[in-house]
Amino acid sequence: MNQSIPDNFHRWHPSSPFMLYVAEIGNLYQTDAGNVLALRVQELHTNMHNIAHGGLLATLADCALGYYIGKETQTSSVTVQMSVEYLNAVKPGDWLEAHVQIDKKGRRLIYASCQLKVGAKVMLKASAVFAVRAAERAVSDG
User: Fold this and answer.
1) pTM for the whole thing?
2) What CATH number should be reported for the domain whose range is 10-133?
3) Euclidean distance between CA atoms 104 and 112, whole angstroms
4) Is 131 within 8 Å of 113 (Cβ atoms)?
5) What would the pLDDT profile of 54-99 be if each residue is shown by its tens digit?
6) Are 124 and 85 in contact (CB under 8 A)?
7) Contact in structure between 25 and 80 (CB atoms under 8 Å)
């Protein structure tokens, strides 16, 4: 199984308690070249069918959305709705990238989408609505 990390990625060190937990079950990586968080899928991420667990994939999408919405808009927000479409199976060894796009930013709501990709192949599509909220820190990390 290929365990290498692409050169343009570096380890992501989140500060929120849940994201620290997620990072413990598999190192997360980011690139400053775009809105991408990534993960090398491991055996411990799989279900009984030896493919990545859907909960892991949805969590990665939600966290990437929250992190990059905060980074780009300099606001704190929470997920109020997210829909997920599982398109293809993700396997151990896959380099899985979460690509985020903000579709619309309003004063109170932010609409965004995320695609999880292995290479050019889309594995999952997510669309979400986030509510802007007051917080001690203006930006969250997912």
Assistant:
1) 0.89
2) 3.10.129.10
3) 7
4) no
5) 999 999 999 999 989 998 999 999 999 999 999 999 999 999 999 9
6) yes
7) no
